[in-house]
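Example (one chain per record):
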Amino acid sequence: MNLRILFFAILTALSFSSCIPVKDMTYLQKKDKDAVESPINPVVVKPYRLQTNDIVSISIKAINPDLVAIFNPSATNEKSAESEQGLYFNGFQVDDHGNIRMPILGEINILGYTVDEVRIKIEKELLATYFTKEANIFVTVKLAGLKFTINGEVTNPGTKTLFQDRVTILEALANSGDISITGDRKNVTVIRQFPHGTEMHDIDLTDIKAMQSPYYFIQPNDYIYVKPLKQKSWGTGKTGIESLTTVITLISLATTTFLLLQN
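Predicted structure:
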């Protein structure tokens, strides 16, 4: 009788300790139950400042398109320019000195500028040297896609490019097939490039306070790594049923071996 009780106790303990609880797989939970209900406002995101190797897309328009055609190297093939490859070949890459090289205008330093500041700078240069206000020039400056790399316990790891101005880390994960059941949502690492070097930060995506983190919105060239849970290395199963099946199999094997040795 004591052996049966011990058997079921061990079986239950192994099953519940090895399976992954629902609370470890649920995003943005309100963990502080005693706190007064209040809206969670995301942190104010500072405008992204351009760094070396960034690629920007610059479009210049006017009442007379022929006047600005020379400034738009991709104007002859707009469909190609809108594709990811087109933006890579026709966009303007920030070199190691922080410059881009444009037709007629030559080298322009934009390192540390926001895209709005680059737009204003180019407009001023054009109006001061080449056009009058009557030309009604219209300059658009955008990042050529928001590129990031995601690896670890996700369904589709790799480098992705999203053509959006702002992307949350949850959107980045959704575009990578989401975190697998064996991924640690409480400890997702974001590696971010800055002019002064590289910084690493861990974010708990199961806590609603993650929305207040400066890493909740990703930036170009971010590297996101999702660590595995301990259950993956244990190999006992990801759910209670899988764990129970594994434990029963092991016990059956041990029992069979014991009986064979007894005979």
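Caption: The radius of gyration is 28 Å.
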